[in-house]
Each structure stands twice: as structure tokens, then as C-alpha cells.
Amino acid sequence: MRVITSVVARPVRLLLTLAAGVLLALGPAGAAAAHEVGGVGATNFATTLSGLSPSVPGVSLAVVENGSRLQLRNTTGTEVVVRGYSEEPYARVGPDGVWLNDSSPATYLNADRYGSTRVPADADPAAAPRWRKISDEPVHRWHDHRTHWMLTTLPIAVAADPTAPHRISSWRVDLDHDSRVLTATGSLDWVPGPSPTPWYLLTALSALLVVGSVFTRWAHRLVAAALGALIAVDTVHAGAIALVTEGNVPERLGAFLGSDMTALLIWPFGIVAAVLVARGATFLGFVGMGVGGLLASMMALDDAPVWWRSSAPSALPADANRATVALVVGLGVGLLLAGPLLWRRCKPASRTRPATASGDPEATAAGTVTASGAAAPHDDSAAGHDGAPATHGGAVAAHDDAVATHGTDTHDVAAATQDLAAPVSGDEGPAATGSAGDEPPVLLGARAAAAASPQREEAVVGRRGFAGTLAAGGVGAILGAASGIAASGPETDTPATPQVSGEPPLASVGTSRVAFHGEHQAGIATPARQQARLRIVAFDLAAGVDRAGLRALLRRWSQAAEQLGQGQPLGRPGDHLVTGAGPASLTVTIGFGPGLFGKAGIPAADRPAQLTPLPAFPGERLDPARGDGDLCLLVAADDAVVVFHAARELIRLAAPHARVRWQQDGFTSSAGVTADGATTRNLMGQLDGTNNPRPGDEDFEPKVFVTDPAAPRWLRGGSLLVVRRIRMLLDDWDGLDLAAQERVIGRRKDTGAPLSGGEERTPADFGATGAGGGLAIPADAHIRLAAPAFNNGAAMLRRGWSYTDGAEAGLLFLAWQADPARGFVPVQRRLAGVDALNRFIRHETSALFAMPRGTAPGGYVGQDLFGEDAT
Amino acid sequence: MTTPPRLATYAAALALTAALSGCSLWGLEGGPDAQGAALPSLAAQPEGVVATTGADGVQRIEITVDDKLRMTPDVVTAHPGRIELTFRNIGLTPHDIALRLPTATATGNLNGADTRTLTIDVTEPGTYPLPCLYHGTSGMRATLHIR
Asked: A28 and chain B: CB distance < 8 Å anywhere?
């Protein structure tokens, strides 16, 4: 070992560093292009050839390369002519080899998977054929665009329901043979793939095994074995792809090694590293880390889709192919973590004296550099930890070129070191803690293992900068890829890597999605945490809009709402308002006002009883122009720009069928500002919504959603929404002292606990008496009057937002219920008369909407309203 | 001697991380359950555009074809008589639009940025498909209503 390292260490270091740079630079480019065959990787599109009729022995047609091309083999003595797109002769295949007709546009179009080319002006299907020989073999393969999907977006039907199989279209290709027409027919289908979950688990398991192996007695051998297995599996995977690649040897070799031969660089390095690690070279664990990180990231980027798509170009059975991908990603991620862990555990003891402040020139250089390095922030997680092995100090100095600077101005050295690159300070930094025993924080609890590390005498490689950088880059890359997997995976997915502390998950607010489809519309009881921003838009139906127009509008809104909810733009050219933004839990809830019935061919008599317009209440001062409406959209998300964009796009789609009647914006606390599940405060400062029905409650559904069997089908599973803009007279309110405010509401302002005692969620005891003998919760307190117990059980789900409009502010009161006659109406009747709060609020606008039940994929909200002609 | 490789690896690592975090993963078909897939555009299509009748009695309509394999408008209404159909390829991908009329014809290959005008005489009311010969399987077609 000593021989190898002492002789080889320096050149190996150099080579490794250079190779790593090259690999890192090539990696992404290779990943983007590799592992496709004929321009097709894993896919759910399936091109099937049903038959060639009449069949002729010796003439065989096949779909090859996973649907990318057709292959015709003709071993008869007579030529077969393949017809082009205008029935013109395109190719001749026969004993004389393959000839293409330069007058056929197909000759040019069929060379490219997507037909993105320019057909020369003299390529006229009607002109006389100009034959050109391209091959001596009686076999021709071509991209026949009649047989595969040519668009770079999904078919509309597939986009509406990607988890169901679809027949996209049928195709036909005619061949002429011996004065007969041979007709090939087939289909293009969408075949959904399996659940990726087992493969996530296999990935995670293999990663854990590799990490775990570091803490066994056979750490080196097991890490080396993992590296060897990684390369073996990657080779099998690439070989299986090469086997299905049709073509000559260089083409197949290209498929095997990746388009830019990256594998040719990576595999030998990995094998050499595996052998050396097995023989005890701890440092080369970092090479294993690099190789693992690169192969895993390339594989995850490139081939992870085989987990959830139905077919992939590979000679292996589909599940075996999926397993190779899972093993490469898992072992690679494992090695990425195992490299630094192995170093921590088994780092070689220093061959030189520990650094001291003794004035030894060598130690001085290292010592002072590191001392100033210590001034640099110490929290650089990955690099810092990976650099940590240098803890035992001056070992570095023996080999490091920095030694050359000893005796010079140490501040300059330090400055120069820091200037090189940020991680360098992290690299040297930990050595500042270099007094023995003062270890920096340990990754994944390896302290015990490190303490027991064998005192191996071995040349020390000082290029911790390289290792740290590689680790930082690799970990970042893998975490990025892993979070991509996690973000797009089903809810059940398992993180492929342990959580590593780093950047806060910025993306979690932005990337959260709420499913549009379901039994109930989104935005009523979902998401559990009400979004921070709301826009309500009420529309009047345009005069003359008929049933078909209304139906088209609802269908368009539903499609758009689903798409926006997925964070997809609607495809309007130039619309970049939310480019780079996630959906941020966007929900769009669509509703019908009482006024809709009697318009657009919807009979007035069809208006359900639940949608009876609200009665007038004493004390309200309603602005009719800012209330009611035939249709309503509730657009909510955790970001104001996302809400604005969605509302505006939906308003655009409404034209010419409906025009905006009024709009109102609302806001509440953003996610991360208050605890999830905490009741939010309204602008009076009260916790508002404490006594709301909760989705877990037994009677939540019947309270909030229409379950009445007499209700029309479109409304069953829907909900009735009362919207009231309630202005708060905040100056008057603030004139009350705290105790008076609490008596008006009946709850403590700070904790939200009822004045009868307890905590926020403690049920109010309306009979409890206070210190003076009077009622603890006064007779005119808001919570007493609004309590279901005093309103025949009337209850509603209040999801209010605050609003502000210049100096005015208040509550955008939104209440969801199965029937306002058993919800808002009795409660408001009672409140309007005697509520102590009335002096401080004013109901200014009012609207009532029936939100239809949710829709399944492929359907649209309100579809059942149209009965038989619904589709 | 130490500096250049360090800088190079650091820069390369940064580039890799950026490339991985920034690029859209997994292409057209997206992640599991087509999450993040490239979805078709929902841009509203005009519902049935009527050909404009000129002073000479010829009905004229322009249909644009593009790289998203759309024909705009995709439903055209005209009366029996002489119709001038102009196909304008506003994309790069070539198309060849067939007119499945009693007198079948086609635009012939229409390269990116090309325009071709066909004049047809239709006497029979009916519904006639105008598929793209290259992209019919992928659903690229328009419809001509004569009534």
C-alpha cells in the first residue's frame, strides 16, 4: 500500500483532479443525450403493428427502437417499394439493397424522429423518381411519422387523464410488392406505466446498505464492492441499450459508451479506484464518491423515467431494466455519502508532527493559514465536514504546496487562500480547531467510528479542496435530482437520500400542489392550510350566451384550472408572468349564483332550494354593484402573483361568454409565518375560526357539503358559499380597552381561550359565571350568539381572508355550508339583532354561490347541470 | 499548480449543480403520472370561422399551420362555390395538407415559412377533412364545412 500511494499519489491526484473536471463538465451534456435509441427513451407511447396483409414470406415489417422506426426486411427476389406520405414511391428494398427516391419528401422527413427538416424544392412526389442507393443490405429502417407521436406535448385526451390507457390513433403504411399492395396497419396507444414506488425503495435500500457498510469491519472491501457493483450494473444497463440499438458497430458502441464516450472515462477510473479502495486506500473513497455521484446523477436524469413508464429501449425485461437504474442511482448516492464517511472513519494518521504553535516553520505556515481560515464562517456544511478530516492539523503541510509560502506574510497567504474559491476556506478552516480532541461536528454520528479509526500509516493526500468541492457539487447535484424525484412523485414516495441540512426548502411553498379533481372541488376544505392569497371574481353572463356557450366556458375553465394548479402555463404566447414560479397550492373553485338560473337555457325552476337568495338582514349596508353574480371563481394560492396570473388568465378565457361583475382580493398569514394548523387572526387581532368544523369531525361532510338526496346531481358533494365583505371599524374597536374587546367577542384576545376558561380549543361554558357573579361570556358576546348550540346546530366552515382597501379594512367572510338556511341565515339573523360586535363592523357586500361537486379527470365542473347534452 | 485544478473543479461542480437544478427533467412525458409533462396548449380556438367573400364572389380564408401541429382556424365554414384557401406555415416543420374533397388535392410539401394558396370549386355541401399527410396520426387536421 505504501508503495502504491507514495509513488502514485501525486500523479494520481493530478489525474484525478483533471479527470474529475472533465467528467463534471461532460456529465450533464452526456446525460442529456445518452440512453435514447433512435431519439426515444422510456415512453408510455406504444406503436403496435397489427399486421401486414396479405403476408408474404420473406417480407417482414417490424416496429423497432421502441416505436421510433419501422424496419423492413425483404429476402424475396422481388423489390418492395415503400410508399411515402402522398403514396409516391419512397424507398426500394430488395436483393439489390436499399434505394431512396430523392424526389420523395419522405426521404428527407424520415431521416429525423420529429421530421424537423427542410424538404428541397425539387422533391415533388409527382415527379419521376430519382433513385439513390444507400445500402447493400435488403433492410431499411426509417422514422415513419405515420406511426408515432410527433408533437412535443401530450395528446389532449392523455393530458386529461394520463393514468388511463388511451388509443391515440390508428395508422396505415402501404408497400408494393410484385404488383400487389401489402398494407401494414397498426395503432398508436398510450400505455400508462407502473408505480415507481418499489424502485424508489430499492434505490433507498441500496444507498443505505452502502452507507451502512462504512461502519462495518469490512468498510474498504464493501465500499470497493459497491463501486464495482455500480460499474457492473451500469455496464449491463448500457449493454442492454446497445443491444436494441439497430445499426453498425460504431453506432452500437456509441450507445454502449454514451454519445460522448463519458463511460470510457468513468468506468476505468471507477475500477482502478475500487481495486485501490479494496486494498485500503481510504482517500480513493472520494473517487468512488465522484464516480457514484456522476453515474447516479446521469442515470437519475436520464433513465429514472423507466420506473414509471411502460416501455424502454433495453434488451432486459422491463423490471430488470428498472432494477438496474435503481441500483445505479442507489449505489451511486450511497457512494457519494460513503466517500466522506469512509475518510472520517479511516483517515490515515498524520505522518508528520501535529501542528503546534511552537514556531516550527512548517507548522507556522499551516497554523496561521488555518487560524485566519477559522474566521471564515464555519457552517459550510458539506465542504466543512469533508474538510474536517484535516483536524489533526499540520499533516497537510508536509505535502501541501502552501508550504512554500512559509515565512512570508501570513495574512497575505490567508487572503490569497480565501480568494481562490469559497470552499477553500472551508477546506482549511476546520484545521483551526486543530488542537487535538476538539473535533468539529460529525456527519451522521460517525464520531465513535472515527475515534476507533486504525492508525494506518499512509501517504497523506492533501487535496482536500478537491474532495470537498466534489462533495459539495455532487451532494448538491444529487439533492437537486432527488428533490426533483420527490416533487414529482406520488405522495407515497420515499426520499432516496437521508435529509441533509442545507438550504431551507424554498421550494416547498412554491411547488405545493392541490389536486383539482376529486369528489369535492379544491379550495373548499383543501388545502388544509388556507392559502395566503385570494381573489374572488364574480361574473355576469353575457347576453345571448346559450347552453353550449356556458358549457364551453365551464369546460375551458376546468381545463385551465387543472393546468394552472399543476403549475403549467396555458400556452398563451408571451405569457411569462409565472415562468419560474410553482403553483403555490393554487386552487380554483367554480360556482353558480342564483342569477344563472333562468339564463343560458338553464330553467329558472332548476335552481336548487339551497341557492335561494339570502334575505335582507338588519343593519347591513350592501353595495349591490359589488355583490351577487351569475358565476364565481375563487382563486387562492400562497402567492399574490400566482393568484393574479391565474385570475387574469381565467378572466381572459371567460370572454366572450361572461364579463367581470366585481372582484375582491383577500390575504391572510403566509405559510411559514404562523404554525400550520394554528388559527389565523383577523385584523381586529382575534383568532378567527377556532370553532370551525374540522375535516376529521364525524359530521364535517354533512355540515359543509350537500348530501341532501333531493338536491340536483351537480350539487351533491358541492357546497354553498356565502361571501360577505365585512368592514371593520378599527378606530372604534381600538378605542375599547382589551377587557372590553374580549367581552365583545367572548374570548381572550391573546390565547383565544373562551372567557369561561381553558385554552383556545376548550369548549366554551356559556353557563359559567365570572368573579362578579355575572356570565363569564356575556349575553351579547359574539361567540355565544354564533354558537351552533344556540342556533339549532347551524354550523358552517368559515375560511375568511382579510382585505384592505386604502384606509378601509376588514374581513372577507367566506362561509361554506350544506344549506345556508341551516347555516349562515339563522346565525346572521341572530347576530344582526344583538351582537355586541355590530358596533364595530358593517356588512358591505353579499353574495351567494353554489359550488358544484368536483369532477373526475376528463370531466368539467358543473357538467351534470347540462343533463344529457353534458358532453 | 494547485490553483487551476481547484478552480476548475469548483467551477465545474457549480455548473453541474446549476445544470441539474435548472433543467426541466424527463422531457415530454414528465415524471410519475405525467407530473410535469408537456401539456397541450389550451389557447382558445375560434369556433368555426366563416370564409370571407370578396367582391369577386370568391370566398377566402387563411389557415396557419405551426410547429405545435395546429391548424388555425381548425374549423372553416364556407358556401358552395369558389374558395381560395391559403395555408401559411408559421413554424419550421414541413407539412402537407390534403384536401379530402370530391376532387382530392393537397398543398404539397409546405416547408417552414412557406405559404401556398389553393383554389377549389366545391358544389356539394358537406364536411370535408383537411389532414396533414405527415402528421395525421398525431391529430393534425382541420375541417371544412360547406353549407
From this structure: yes
Please state, as a whole number, how many other Cβ atoms lie within 10 Å of the Cβ of residue A871: 10
Backbone CA torsion sign across A224, A229, A232, A238: negative
Q: In the numeric block, which cell numbers belong to residue A680?
A: 389565523
Other Cβ atoms less than 10 A from the Cβ of A406: the count is 19
How many Cα atoms occupy the beta-carbon half-sphere of A515 within 13 Å? Answer: 13
Q: Pick A156's closest partner by Cβ from B23, B36, B40.
A: B40
Question: Does the annotation count A864 as an active-site position?
Answer: no
| A110 close to A184: Cβ distance less than 8 angstroms | no
Residue B118 predicted with pLDDT over 80: yes
Q: Please choose, from the candidates A163, A145, A645, A321, the residue with its C-alpha nearest in 3D space to the C-alpha of residue B37.
A: A163
Residue pair A458/A352 in contact by the 8 Å Cβ criterion: no
Query: Are the Cβ atoms of B9 and A109 closer than 8 angstroms?
Result: no
A86 contacts chain B (CB < 8 A): yes
Kindly state the cell numbers that stand for A841. 363592523
DSSP state at residue A304: G
Write phi, then psi, for A387 (nearest 5 degrees): -75, -20
The single-letter DSSP state of residue A43 is B
Distance CA A253, CA A250 (A): 5
- Return the exposure string of A429-459: e unless at least 16 CB atoms fall within 10 Å of the residue's CB, then b: bbbbbbeeeeebebbbebeebbeebeeeebb
Cα distance between residue A425 and residue A523, in whole Å: 49
Give the HSE-up count for residue A677: Cα atoms under 13 Å, Cβ half-sphere.
3
| Cβ A343 vs Cβ A285: under 8 Å | yes
Q: Which of A190-199, A293-302, A392-401 ranks highest by mean pLDDT?
A: A190-199
Which residues of chain A make contact with B69, given a CB cutoff of 8 A? 150-151
Which residue, among A469, A486, A482, has the nearest Cα to A427 in the 3D structure?
Answer: A469
- Of the CA atoms within 13 Å of residue A35, those in its CB half-sphere come to 28
Q: pLDDT per residue over B57-109, tens digit each?
A: 899 999 999 888 888 888 889 999 999 999 999 888 899 999 988 777 888 89
pLDDT, tens digit, 9 for 90 and up, residues A598-630: 999 899 999 999 999 999 999 899 999 999 999
Residue A457: pLDDT over 50: no
Write down the pLDDT at residue A541.
94
Catalytic choice (A638, A665, A688, A819):
A688
Distances, alpha carbon A679 to alpha carbons A465, A766, A817, in Å: 49, 22, 19
Widest distance between CA atoms in chain B: 84
**C-alpha span between A88 and A124 (Å, rounded):** 9
Rounded to 5 degrees, φ, ψ at A529 are -95, 115
Single-letter amino acid, residue A196: P
Asked whether the beta carbons of A712 and A757 are under 8 A apart, the reply is no
Secondary structure (DSSP) of A106-162: HHHHTTSTT--S---TT--TTSPP-EEEEESSSEEEE--TTSS---SS--HHHHH-T
Sign of the CA dihedral running A718, A724, A725, A727: negative
pLDDT higher than threshold 80 for residue A351 = no
The answer to whether the CB of A812 falls within 8 A of the CB of A806 is no
State whether B40 and A153 contact (CB < 8 Å): yes
Q: Residue A58 in contact with residue A74, Cβ under 8 Å?
A: yes
Interchain CB contact of B81 with A (< 8 Å) = no
Query: Rounded to whole angstroms, how far apart are CA atoms A610 and A400?
Result: 81
Tell me what the mean pLDDT of segment A141-160 comes to.
Answer: 87
Q: Is A38 a residue whose pLDDT tops 70?
A: no
With contacts defined as CB-CB under 8 Å, which chain B residues touch A653? 44
Sign of CA dihedral A559, A560, A565, A570: positive
pLDDT score, position A871: 58
